[in-house]
Amino acid sequence: QITLNTHMKENPSVTYFFEITPQQFTDIIYDVRDINLSIEVIDESPQEREADIVINGHLTHLYTRDRIFKRNIEPFVEEGNNGIRIFPRSKLEIVKVIVALE
C-alpha cells in the first residue's frame, strides 16, 4: 500500500482596496455616475480566461478572451472602504486593476 500525502496551497489570489466618499456613493446610487471595474491582462488569448471576483463579500465572475475585462460593480460597492479579491481559475497575468467613476 502506498500512502500519498499532499499539502495543497490555497489558490493564489490578489486583493485590492479602494475608498468611496459619501458624495461619490450618493452619485452612484442615484445613477449620476457609474462605477466600473476594469482588469487588464498581458495579451488577448484564444482560450477563455476565468476568475472568481469577490467584491465586499459578493461573488461575481470574469470570463474573457479579450485583453480588457470591464464590469459595472454598483450593486457591490459600499460607502467607505471596499475590497476586491481576484481568484484566478486559469492563467491570468494581470497588468492593472482600475475602479473608475464614469
Please bin the fraction of helical residues.
Answer: under 10%
Stretches with pLDDT under 50, minimum 5 residues: 1-8
The second-level CATH architecture is Sandwich
Q: What's the CATH class, please?
A: Mainly Beta
C-alpha-based Rg, rounded: 17 Å
Walk across the major sheet and give the strand order.
1-6-3-4
Globally, the shape reads elongated
Secondary structure: number of strands: 7
Termini gap: 62 Å
User: What is the N-to-C order of secondary-structure elements (H for helix, E for strand)?
Assistant: EHEEEEEE
**Would you tell me the structural class of the helices and strands?**
mainly beta
Binned strand content: over 45%
The largest pleated sheet is described as: 4 strands, antiparallel
CATH fold assignment: Jelly Rolls
Number of domains: 1
Q: Kindly report the name of the CATH homologous superfamily.
A: Galactose-binding domain-like
Report the total helices: 1
Describe this structure as you would to a colleague.
There is one protein chain. This protein is mostly beta strands. The protein has a single domain, classed as Sandwich (Jelly Rolls). Strands 1-6-3-4 form a four-stranded antiparallel beta sheet. A three-stranded antiparallel beta sheet has the order 5-2-7, with no helix packed on it. The protein is elongated and about 40 Å long. 15% of the residues are buried.
